[in-house]
Amino acid sequence: MNHSIRPQLVLPVAIVLTVVTVVLVLVFSSPGWDEPEKATAEPTILPSEQHERSARLEAWTRPATTDPKAMAIGYARAIWTYDTAKHNFDDWQDAVSVFADPVGEGPRIARSLLPLLPEWQQLELHHARASVDYITAEITPEMKQLQQSAAAPEGWTGFVVHGKQTVVLDTETIVADRQAAVGVVCTSICKFWSATAQIKP
After folding, report:
1. For 181-193, how does the pLDDT look when each residue is reduced to its tens digit (9 = 90+)?
2. From 3.10.450.230, 3.40.50.720, 1.10.10.60, 2.30.30.140, which CATH number describes the 59-196 domain?
C-alpha cells in the first residue's frame, strides 16, 4: 500500500516546493528588498553638526607666516571679529587660542582681550556681529625699546595695532576705533606671545 501512495505524494510536494522557491527568489531579488539596509548605512547629519562645521569664521584664520606684522594683524582681526548667529563663545576662544603656542600660558593670554562671558551673553541677546577694517601694526619707540631689552625672548617683536570695528546690535550700527599692544615671536613660523589693551608698556 505504501508503494501506491508515494508516487501520488511526490507530484504535489514537488509543486509546492517549486512555488515556494519561486516566491522566495522573487522576494529576495526585488529592488526594494535591501533599501532599508542601504538607508541606515548613510550618515545622518544633525543640525548641531552642521552648526559646528560652520562655526569657524574665515577672519579667525591664523596666518602661517614668518612675518611678525602679518601675525599681529591676523590676531587683531580675530579678536575684533565675531558673529553671535554663527558661533558660540567657546568657538571664538578656541580660535584665538590657536594663535599662541599651546604649551604654557599663551592660549590664556591670547584670550584675555576677548569679552567676558557675561558680556558675550549680552551680545547674544542683541544678535550682535562685528567686523574690522583698516588694521595697521606699528612698531612704536616704546616697542622698539622693549625689543632691544635683554628680557625680550629671542625673535620677539612688539606692535601697536589699530583697527576700525563695525558692530551691529539688533538694528543699530556702531563704528569704533580699536587698539592693542601685541607681542609676536618669530623663530621660524610666527606665534602670538602677548597682548594688552594698554598701549604704553
Report:
1. 999 999 989 999 9
2. 3.10.450.230
